[in-house]
Sequence to fold (335 residues):
Amino acid sequence: MKNLIKVLTFLFVLFIFACNNSENEVIVYTTVDQIFSEPILKDFEKETGIKVKAVYDTEETKSTGVLNRIIAEKDNPQCDVFWSGDPVRTIVLKNKGITLPYNSKVAEDINPAFKDPENHWTGFSARARVLIYNKNLLTDTLVPESIFDLTNENLKGKIAIANPLFGTTTFHISALFTVLGDEKTKQFLNDLKNNELVIATSNGDVKKRVLNGELACGLTDTDDAFEAMKESNDVGIVFLDQNGIGSLIMPNTVNLIKGSKHQENAKKIFDYLLSRKTEEKLAISCTQMPLHKGVKVPKEIPSLDNIVPMKIDYDKTSKKLEEIQEYLKVWVENN
Fold:
């Protein structure tokens, strides 16, 4: 009997320990590259003592893997916080009733344009879509200034984009559909196809091909573009359409998942991600542009104040992203 009591007591202590251990954690799903997001999450662990269990996307399935997993887990949520590299996937979750509103005081001075009006998501640390080009293959007079210049004959077979079924390329094309309308965007995409556009596996692949001189130019994100410029003086970047529709600005976003197990810890990491400290770290590690004013950044990082942004409605763009998936699949298959 005494042995049974000892065993039961031991099991009870283990159970309590396991419960307490589980309570002092937070589960984060993220589409942000692990090389950049993991150090931020590790710093949060060190500073708070809260264990972070993270699930990361791969480069090739960027933004779709963890997004679909959160949707599949809707009735039994395993994720507490979704850290996305753009707003549109977050809005997909909001529209499916998967997110919770949270108004973080840390974000009070962030431009309302980068926040959900109902506080279901908040933006921080932005990237932009840019053109990257090889200076040895394009003279200054031939460097495109507009996205529409990519259909010019002199660039035939020399340009690339990442697979538009994934990641920020999907976001970019969805934004074009929203801003230009269906007819004009489809015509533009067909013109790109006729100009022998190369579809790369990822933004990183676009960077690599332009960097090694395989292609003259391509569309990618500022983090990949600035990384390429560090690697070679032969690489340049252009913020396109500064006299037209503007460049697409893509803030990171964070939101809470409804019905998750660690709501209080989720709010703590939500606030942490929105902090100036996090924006400064992301500026240094992956050249992202802060949304808070006055954050110290490396000199090569431009201010958002000096970039003409594409004027888009993130909600409409999110709906368009879902709407055009079948069209994009056919377009990619026939490219």
Observations:
- The radius of gyration is 22 Å.
- Residues 134 and 212 are 8 Å apart (CA to CA).
- The chain has two domains: 24-126+249-302, 127-248+322-333.
